[in-house]
Amino acid sequence: MLSLNNVSVYFKDHAGLLDVSIGVNKGDFVYIVGPTGAGKTTLLRTIYMDLMPDDGFVQFGEYNSLMIKRRRIPYLRRQIGVVFQDFKILEDRTAFDNIVFALGAIGVSSQTAKGKAARALKNVGLMSKKDRYPFELSHGEIQRVCIARAIANDPLIILADEPTGNLDPKTAHGIVSVLRKLNERGIAVITATHNYRIIRDFPGRIIYLKNGRQIEKM
Q1: Tally of CB atoms within 10 A around 137
Q2: What is the mean pLDDT of the chain?
Q3: Confidence of residue 13 (pLDDT cuts 50, 70, 90)
């Protein structure tokens, strides 16, 4: 479903990734681990083509980073759900309306978007708080809204960038439990994390990065 093939990404003063090759199949549960600055976020950004490789290429289904036209990138992203570390949530909209707005932005009709938003919130156990604004929710609940937004359009894969980074251990456990349940339905999940307790509690394939390089063994 997804492959990174000898991918390198260079920034002005350092390499973000160096010759990274990864394959992900439907239903995989993958952790990207490594110290700060190892390239975890850079790797995720190459998958949804926010960054293009300087060497190598990314293949996601029919989309190839070497050949894709910029106008086609939004269509690629409709198949990918992204959970950002800093939430990227709209403070002036309710949990429900955040999801409806995101769906509307990619051309989903209002009525369809409302149905998808309700289903997504139900799947993360937050339907009872659909009319709450972000300031009325805990950090864990906001992260669940972000997951609901990521899955609302039925993606093939979820990319979660440090989804437990700002959460206490109990809340973090609950968030990864949600991701695991979604994974059990066939959605591939790639999680960038520093949280080794989560990896212990929810085992998956581990890809370790250091200084942009892929290390085969931890």
Answers
A1: 18
A2: 94
A3: confident
pLDDT at 218 over 50: no
Sorted by where each starts, the structural domains of the chain and their CATH numbers stand as 2-215 (3.40.50.300)
- Region 107-115: mean pLDDT is 94
Instruction: Find, among 198, 128, 187, 138, the residue nearest to 163 by Cα.
Output: 198
pTM across the whole model? 0.93
Write b or e for each residue in 22-38: b if 16 or more Cβ atoms lie within 10 A of its Cβ, otherwise e.
Answer: bebeeebbbbbbbeeeb
Ordered alpha helix ranges (H), 26-106 = 40-47, 73-77, 95-105
Confidence of residue 216 (pLDDT cuts 50, 70, 90): low
Task: Label the pairing between strands 63-64 and 55-60.
Answer: antiparallel
b/e 121-136 (16+ beta carbons within 10 angstroms → b):
bebbebbebbebbbee
Rounded to an integer, what distance in angstroms lies between the CA atom of residue 181 and that of residue 178? 5
